[in-house]
Design a protein that fits this description.
24% strand, 95 residues, globular, 4-stranded mixed beta sheet, Glutaredoxin, alpha+beta
Length: 95
């Protein structure tokens, strides 16, 4: 089986409404695409989040692309991007 597509959400603690929305979008995509997608939620203060140079939360990363910073992406655009990546097509990072 191919590697799973990873969605990382870096959120504040306690989470703001945008962070909560990003977490829910990522978890919904995991439910929709099953084992093809995985979700990792990181607290902005977690040392693992430092590797991404996060300045604003939420930050959402899909695969190796930062797709949104400081806002929740549009759910339809995010799903379109995920679907495209799962089908082997590269997608623009603007969601």
């Amino acid at each position: 089986m191919k590697d799973r597509l990873r969605i990382i959400v870096i959120a504040s603690s306690p989470p703001c409404s945008k962070c909560i929305a990003c977490k829910k979008m990522a978890q919904d995509l995991v439910e929709r695409y099953g084992e093809r997608v995985e979700c990792q939620i990181l607290d902005a203060m977690d040392p693992a989040a430092d590797a991404y140079g996060v300045l604003l939360t939420p930050t959402m990363i899909v695969g190796d692309m930062v797709v949104s910073v400081g806002r929740a992406p549009r759910p339809d655009k995010l799903e379109e991007m995920v679907r495209g990546l799962l089908q082997g097509r590269g997608q623009n990072a603007e969601v």
